[in-house]
Amino acid sequence: MKTARGIFVTGTDTEVGKTFVSCALLAMLKRQGVKAAAMKPVASGAEEVDGRWCNDDA
Fold it and tell me: For residue range 22-35, what is the model confidence (pLDDT) as tens digits?
């Protein structure tokens, strides 16, 4: 059986816990000695701050 090379976390809406679950998965993998990293390539709900669009999670 091949080892998974990635995990894609998705949800049905905003504010449903995708970031929380992703962080928990990452922490579990790291505790097991797996070299793991996370990235959030897309975010919704941005706000403009000093002329730049920002999101707390991304």
Answer: 999 999 999 999 99
pLDDT at residue 8, as a whole number: 92
Report how far Cα 53 is from the mean position of its chain's Cα atoms: 19
Q: How far apart are CA 18 and CA 26, in angstroms?
A: 12
- Which residues are marked as active site? 40
DSSP classification of residue 30 = H
User: What is the residue extent of each domain of the chain?
Assistant: 1-58
Helix (H) or strand (E) holding 28: helix 18-31
pTM above 0.85, yes or no: no
In this structure, the strands spanning 52-54 and 47-49 are antiparallel
